[in-house]
Every structure is written in structure tokens, then in C-alpha cells.
Design a protein that fits this description.
5-stranded antiparallel β-sheet, two-stranded antiparallel ribbon, 1 helix
């Protein structure tokens, strides 16, 4: 998992003097990670991919919990996903896939 954050600064140019830098706030944190989905691990990969797709398309703000630990200040939005199909059953059903997910922090106003 990669978790990143950044700050915003504005630069004010001043006549015949050095520019002045001003802190204007924080950008939302971002988080990226890969998920391995496999029928061998007790899940239907396509069902889970559709769930991720639905969260992304409906702009749902969801918590990020790994094990018993919650991450972030409140919730996250899925901004992007990428599916890498690894293996299929003979009938064409997805057996194993890796999904790369990108999240952006969603804070209460």
C-alpha cells in the first residue's frame, strides 16, 4: 500500500522584491494498493470487481479498514481501478485477478 499527502502553496510575486510563499491548505491524501481476488481464496472475483466498480461510479465514501485498523481521518472515494485478469475457468469465468485501486481521502465538511 502506498499512502501519500501533499500541501498547497501559493507564490505571490512582489515588485522588486523576493516572491512571498503562502501555505493555502492541504490536498486530500491518496492511497493506492493491489488486491488479489481468487476463487481459491474463497471469493468470486467478478462479484468483487463489480462492487469496486459500483463504489467508484456512485462516488460512495467508504472506510478503509485492513484487519482491525482503520486508515485515514474519515472515509475514502475510489477514483480509479485497474483489473489484471490472471486466470479463467474453461467456461470463461474469472478465476484469479489482481485489482489495482486508487483512493482519495473524503472528509466531512
Amino acid at each position: 500500500m502506498t499512502w501519500s499527502g501533499s500541501a498547497r502553496f501559493s507564490t505571490h510575486n512582489r515588485h522588486l522584491n523576493n516572491a512571498l510563499t503562502e501555505f493555502t491548505g492541504l490536498d486530500p491524501d491518496k492511497c493506492t494498493f493491489d488486491i488479489t481476488l481468487s476463487t481459491d481464496l474463497g471469493t468470486d472475483p467478478m462479484t468483487e470487481v463489480k462492487r469496486i466498480w459500483n463504489y467508484e461510479r456512485t462516488a460512495s465514501a467508504i472506510p478503509l479498514t485492513i484487519g482491525t485498523h482503520g486508515y485515514g481521518k474519515y472515509r475514502w472515494n475510489i477514483t480509479k481501478h485497474e483489473l489484471k485478469a490472471k486466470a479463467f475457468f474453461r467456461n470463461g469465468d474469472l478465476h484469479t485477478a489482481t485489482v489495482s485501486v486508487s483512493l482519495q481521502e473524503y472528509l466531512r465538511s
